[in-house]
Amino acid sequence: MLRQKGFAAAMTVMMAFGAGQASAETIRITLQLPETHPLGVNLNAWKQCVESADSDLQVQIFPSAQLYTDKQVPEAVGSGAIEMGTASLTRFAGSVPAVDAVYVPFLFDSEEKVKKATAPGSAVRAVLDKAVLEETGARILWWQAFGRTIYVSKKPIRVPADIQDKKVRTFGKLLGWTVEALGGAPTLMSGSKQFLAYQQGAVDAGITGLTGAKSRKLYEVMPNMTLTFDSDIEFVAVMNEEFYQSLSAGKQKTVNDCGLKVEKELRDRIFQIETEALAYLKTKMNVIELTDPERAQWREATASVVERFVENGGQIAADVIAAAQ
Predict the structure, then answer these.
(1) 3-state class (DSSP) for residue 140
(2) For the chain, N or C: smaller number of CB within 10 Å?
């Protein structure tokens, strides 16, 4: 049963798009970001790859959260309401708390660590991909690199004390713990709702990524950005397991091979994409780059989050931390 608010409205929109006539070989994908965002470009590359390899497979992409918000994707895909979707990995934390490992502050704080941890077949992926499938009915086809976390804010943020008593937008439970460790008050919010929340002053600051700040034009409502780069933001492209199993072996191979192809393309380019986004945002915002002593303050202030993560996530979380370290 679809319990989340907005599902009825989403189903109405899908019918308007003719989703009710979708054949078993039609793959509909819900995307919360615009198609111009790197994740949208990534999905379109997968669509092109799949349709070129197998003319019997047709892919329809519904961008900008017009069907489901980020938080609704796990249930929508797992239940079979839609064949595929992309969502922040943290949206699966309700079923698999260990997925929040990528958001543990400073655990993946270099390009090398991120690439090793997120590589297909890595020890981290082996644990998390399996757990997500077993607990949600959603198969992770590939991981979508989003970049590293940064803060946007009304007033400049440079050290943890600057977050004290501030309302901060987050997009996952563990990020909320990070904000609490810094002395702030976390507010869970989908990415598509950020702009309006910042515009109306509902929160004082927000955690997001460089590419998201650019594509959502957050610079129009938030004048400051702090490059904390304290955690790694990962999205995943997931497919309903029953639908996946209904495909022939050849079509499954096409789906998987194209996923690996576009995953590598995005992973190889994400840091360059971030560099380009940052150059653009520097013309729009006051960008704060932390010194080593300042970054050390952030590390010290958030050190307790690792222990809290393991306590909450149990053995799977402990296994992921061990693999990451």
Answers:
(1) strand
(2) N
* pLDDT at position 182: 97
Give the CATH architecture of domain 7-324.
3-Layer(aba) Sandwich (3.40)
Distance of CA 311 to the CA centre of its chain: 23
Annotate 172-191 with b (16+ C-beta within 10 A) or e (fewer).
Answer: bbbbbbbbbbbebebbebbb
Measured distance CA(218)–CA(51) in Å, rounded: 34
Cα 93 from Cα 58, distance rounded (Å): 31
Provide the token pair at 80.
Answer: 């079979």
Q: Are 173 and 292 in contact (CB under 8 A)?
A: no
d(CA 67, CA 134): 25
pLDDT at 308: 94
- Three-state SS at 313: helix
Q: Distance between CA 11 and CA 179 in Å, rounded?
A: 35
Question: pTM for the complete prediction?
Answer: 0.84
Distance of CA 275 to the CA centre of its chain: 19
* H/E run at residue 271: helix 249-281
In angstroms, the CA 189 to CA 187 distance is: 6
For residue 2, pLDDT over 80 is answered with no
Name beta bridge partners: 26. Answer: 58
* Nearest-10 Cα torsion for 195, 63, 19, 10: -10
Among the listed residues 95, 129, 133, the one whose alpha carbon sits nearest the alpha carbon of residue 241: 133
Q: What is the pLDDT of residues 200-215, one digit of tens each?
A: 999 999 999 999 999 9
Q: Where are the domains of the chain?
A: 7-324
